[in-house]
Structure to design on (201 residues):
């Protein structure tokens, strides 16, 4: 299955990606995955990208990259892309990170998106994650912890993003400008996907 999708990807039929220049609108992680595939490929006579002969006979291992459907149908991905484009990734000199953990948290809470210098946390509220009373109360505790530590929590639903993502990004930009810059030490990685905020001592 993966090999078939890789062929579609490389031939440009699925995602219309034929060169690294076509990756501009994607997030950092997606760009790196696709660039790795593009760099290991060669052009055929008709100009389509095809895998090297060696990779055609190779079987997929657990450590190899897996690709998601593109364009994504997930509003969280849409907002991620829009925010990374607007504020630039912290890892590339910007202000935006995903999966943020705050220090001294009573639980290992993580917040979906974060604008570091203005201390804005952005959370997706989905019915699937808040069906029980326990989950709902946990989310309130998580929000209260962030607020009492100087953070603002913005909450969005999938419907809000689907219907007017530009307005949401504009609202976030406005709040980001109003809150100004708060000093912090740095952001550290926690595992492969999480980040932890390190405040000024």
């Amino acid at each position: 299955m993966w090999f078939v999708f890789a062929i579609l990807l490389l031939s440009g039929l699925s995602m219309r990606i034929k060169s690294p220049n076509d990756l501009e609108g994607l997030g950092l992680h997606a760009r790196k995955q696709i660039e790795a595939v593009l760099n290991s490929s060669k052009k055929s006579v008709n100009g389509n990208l095809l895998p090297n002969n060696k990779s055609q006979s190779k079987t997929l291992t657990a450590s190899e990259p897996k690709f998601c459907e593109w364009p994504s149908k997930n509003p969280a991905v849409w907002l991620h892309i829009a925010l990374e484009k607007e504020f630039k990734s912290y890892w590339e000199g910007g202000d935006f990170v995903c999966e943020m953990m705050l220090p001294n948290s009573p639980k290992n809470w993580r917040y979906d998106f974060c604008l570091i210098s203005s201390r804005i946390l952005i959370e997706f509220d989905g019915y699937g994650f808040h069906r029980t009373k326990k989950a709902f109360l946990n989310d309130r505790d998580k929000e209260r912890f962030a607020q009492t530590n100087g953070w603002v929590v913005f909450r969005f639903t999938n419907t809000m993003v689907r219907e007017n993502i530009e307005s949401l990004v504009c609202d976030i930009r406005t709040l980001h400008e109003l809150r100004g810059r708060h000093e912090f030490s740095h952001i550290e990685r926690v595992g492969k996907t999480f980040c932890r905020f390190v405040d000024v001592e």
Notes: Helices lie at 2-11, 28-39, 53-56, 75-87, 133-148, 158-179.
